[in-house]
């Protein structure tokens, strides 16, 4: 079907959906069913997945499950008819993993989300989705409730496992290229899984990490409602469909330094080559340009993505590729948002999803085959490249970025980014280590205040970003400057000299800048909510105003 709501179709540009105000609320699930969908969270399935911080006990778990069940029953997966995502579950689980108390979880749900949620409603004509009509209702958010019922049956079927479900619905040929020769609509479920800023990865990833079948069902229903448009080229890239477009003049204009077809490179070298390639734009892409950019440059983007040395055949391959993805995310979002020590930090909203979605790759990969691990990581990398390009493919001035001292050592006086919290400085006792006057006695570990501020900040994305950065710091914070050059130089291409300065402090530096940009609310600062939307935010506002003038109020 693929007739989704407005803003996001082909890069925030398409036709608006309309829904009658006369909607039917779905019948509630039984307490027994909800208990099976939302059991007590389990430990993560992989040591590479994030560990959980100590919480306050059973009251926090009770608050989490109560709110997850309420959100599951009460709300649509998009909170308006512009396909803006319902982030309530993401917010709750990130806070829970960071050790939030029950009252914080209740307030996060009730005060941050409930006031703008779109109520759940029965699909048009009370459609029942089956294996036989699976492709008939793809890409239409009006059928979310029907998809949710379908995936309820899937996850609650006796003998079903998360592994069998993900292998079938995300990675099998049948649910991606069911009709490779007939010219019919393809299911393209892995493509849809990457659409609209990688949100289904996050949702299903939470289900995999916490052992929550209800999140798996919601995430796959969400995936089925997503378009399979211009946002990614996953199906073409990974499932060997025959090309339908001629080679463009742009593709023929290859730089002389372009590696030969079939080259296998590390991810950071691919970013360097794409930064050098004059065929890519270096400006922010607006809503009318985004889909056009991907249609014009899609095959070229695919060509670079295919170079990534990512064929998972062993645990070592998986660990190497996951580390590459973590540093790619930190660079695209963290360093790409930085315009120098004297400029405001932009905290780019779109590339932030590259780093937050990467957090869930270990949990999903722990449950699927080597082939599916390869497909997932390649799809994620390809999609990350498209969003980085949309944001103007910002560079990585690492020499300057890492020149400032790390918190809690005070920064240069000319810097816009102080390394200290607002308000009065703590006064440690004389016996405090290493001394009462040391900044390390006042702030022994900057991650503690970073995460505690994320716990009480009302912005639902901040805790997700900080949790991801903290976890990657745990895994890779030991990397010393020069480590990247050592392995990048093996690819036989010119290595960006800036990568000589990349080290494991990048995660802490980015987390500190992000926390400061959004406001240290736990220390008395106001919530700035300053994520950088720029052209896409302007486009969304324009679309909303137009919809209001046309009488298309969200339900």
Mean pLDDT score, rounded? Answer: 87
User: Separation of termini?
Assistant: 21 Å
Rg is: 23 Å
* SS strand fraction: under 5%
Shape from CA axes? globular
Task: List the uncertain runs.
Answer: 2-21
SSE succession? HHHHHHHHHHHHHHHHHHHHHHHH
Binned, the helix content reads 40-55%
Count, helices = 24
Strand elements, count: 0
Class from helix and strand fractions: mainly alpha
What is the makeup of the main sheet?
A: none
Region (Disordered): 1-28
Keywords: Oxidoreductase
GO molecular function: oxidoreductase activity
Pfam families: Questin_oxidase (PF14027)
Structure notes:
- The protein is an all-alpha fold and 555 residues long.
- The chain has a domain of 223 residues.
- Helix content is 49%, strand content 0%.
- The chain has 24 helices and no strands.
- The N terminus is likely disordered.
């Amino acid at each position: 079907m693929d007739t989704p709501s407005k803003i996001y179709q082909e890069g925030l540009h398409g036709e608006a959906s309309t829904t009658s105000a006369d909607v039917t609320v779905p019948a509630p699930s039984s307490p027994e069913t909800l208990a099976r969908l939302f059991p007590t969270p389990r430990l993560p399935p992989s040591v590479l997945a994030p560990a959980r911080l100590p919480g306050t006990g059973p009251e926090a778990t009770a608050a989490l499950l109560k709110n997850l069940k309420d959100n599951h029953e009460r709300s649509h997966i998009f909170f308006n008819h512009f396909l803006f995502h319902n982030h309530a579950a993401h917010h709750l689980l990130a806070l829970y993993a960071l050790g939030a108390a029950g009252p914080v979880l209740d307030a996060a749900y009730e005060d941050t989300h409930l006031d703008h949620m779109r109520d759940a409603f029965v699909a048009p004509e009370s459609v029942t989705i089956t294996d036989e009509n699976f492709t008939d209702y793809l890409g239409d958010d009006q059928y979310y409730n029907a998809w949710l019922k379908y995936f309820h049956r899937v996850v609650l079927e006796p003998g079903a496992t998360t592994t069998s479900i993900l292998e079938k619905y995300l990675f099998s040929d049948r649910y991606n290229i069911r009709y490779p020769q007939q010219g019919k609509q393809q299911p393209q479920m892995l493509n849809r899984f990457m659409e609209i800023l990688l949100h289904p990865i996050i949702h299903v990833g939470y289900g995999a990490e916490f052992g929550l079948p209800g999140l798996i069902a919601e995430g796959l229903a969400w995936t089925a409602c997503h378009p399979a448009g211009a946002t990614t080229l996953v199906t073409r890239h990974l499932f060997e469909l025959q090309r339908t477009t001629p080679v463009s003049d742009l593709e023929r204009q290859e730089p002389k330094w372009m590696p030969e077809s079939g080259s296998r490179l590390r991810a950071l070298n691919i970013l360097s080559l794409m930064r050098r390639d004059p065929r890519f734009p270096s400006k922010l892409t607006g809503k009318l340009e985004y889909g056009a950019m991907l249609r014009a440059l899609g095959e070229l983007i695919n060509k670079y993505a295919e170079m990534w040395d990512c064929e998972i055949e062993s645990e070592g391959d998986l660990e190497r590729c996951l580390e590459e993805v973590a540093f790619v995310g930190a660079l695209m979002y963290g360093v790409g948002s930085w315009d120098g020590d004297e400029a405001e930090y932009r905290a780019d909203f779109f590339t932030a999803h590259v780093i937050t979605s990467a957090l869930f790759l270990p949990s999903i990969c722990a449950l699927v085959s080597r082939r599916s691990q390869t497909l997932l990581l390649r799809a994620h990398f390809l999609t990350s490249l498209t969003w980085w390009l949309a944001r103007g493919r910002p560079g990585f001035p690492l020499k300057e970025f890492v020149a400032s001292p790390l918190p809690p050592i005070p920064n240069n006086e000319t810097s816009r980014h102080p390394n200290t919290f607002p308000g009065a400085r703590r006064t440690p006792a004389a016996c405090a280590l290493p001394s009462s006057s040391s900044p390390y006695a006042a702030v022994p570990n900057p991650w503690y205040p970073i995460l505690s501020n994320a716990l009480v900040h009302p912005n639902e994305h901040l805790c997700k970003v900080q949790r991801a950065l903290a976890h990657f710091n745990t895994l890779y914070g030991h990397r010393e400057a020069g480590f990247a050059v050592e392995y990048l130089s093996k690819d036989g291409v010119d290595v960006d000299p800036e990568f000589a300065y990349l080290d494991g402090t990048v995660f802490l530096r980015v987390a500190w800048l992000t926390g400061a940009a959004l406001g240290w609310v736990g220390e008395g600062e106001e919530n700035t909510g300053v994520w950088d939307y720029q052209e896409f935010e302007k486009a969304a506002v324009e679309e909303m105003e137009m919809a209001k003038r046309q009488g298309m109020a969200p339900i």
